[in-house]
# Entry
Amino acid sequence: MLDLDMSPYGVFVWSSWAISAVALAAISLRALVAARRWKRELARLEEARK
Amino acid sequence: MFGLANPDRFMRFTRPVTPVLWGLAVVLLAVGTWLSFAAPADYQQGDTVRIMFIHVPAATLGLGAYAALGVSSFFALVFRHPLADAAARAAALPGAVLTGLALITGSLWGQPMWGTWWVWDARLTSVLVLFLFYLGYMALRASIDDEQKAGRAAAVLGLVGLINLPIVKFSVDWWNTLHQPASLLRAGGTSLDPAYLTPLLTMMAAYGMLFGAVWLTSIRTEVRRRRVLTLRARAAQEA
# Structure
């Protein structure tokens, strides 16, 4: 079973996990958004050259 | 292995690999999080032991990412290979974020266990220096307009920073530190109980897959970005 009662250290445990989750989501999202943007731009330029 | 130095071959090879890494990262993060909160509280540290499951992988991958940056910088400097330069550049931001996370989660673990957010001991200070090398690398790249010159200058800094990696790793053995010595990779085997070892190894695998996914995706993006810049320059010449 999951143990979600972190007392008396809840503020330390939950803020560590929350900060990590936000930071990892941010670098993942940034990489995926940039990948999509440059893939589209390259396809557009290659199409224009044909 | 060296065949992958060809950008076209690299793009063909990593196309099916990248989504697999993303998928594995998501699954392992979900399983690892479950295991981390299913593990019993430690008899001494209580629930703060759960910070270990995100602190250790962040610190390990922060070091690993810098090793990738440093080795890529070496190949970029010696062979002037654009893919190596792209690999170094792509490792910088995720590496900096992971190292930053190691510092923040370490501080949040240190306060309840050591009674302080920060001490200038060898391990903490050398990890801070590693973080500053990442920031310096990114700042140097951003400060020079000519991308080739920026790449070369940053690669030199990246190589210099490699010296810090063994200092981080062995700082707890070479000096008296408040930070505990290695408990995972050490002579005589791990000192961790299986109840903590399983979630820790799962989270380390998850962070590894996530870093791999972000890194490969970013290298692929960098290859495409450079092709776009080349095509734009060609179009401008033809016009």
The radius of gyration of chain B is 20 Å. Residues 19-38+50-181+190-238 of chain B form one domain. Chain B touches chain A through 39 residues (CB under 8 Å). Chain B has one domain: 19-38+50-181+190-238.
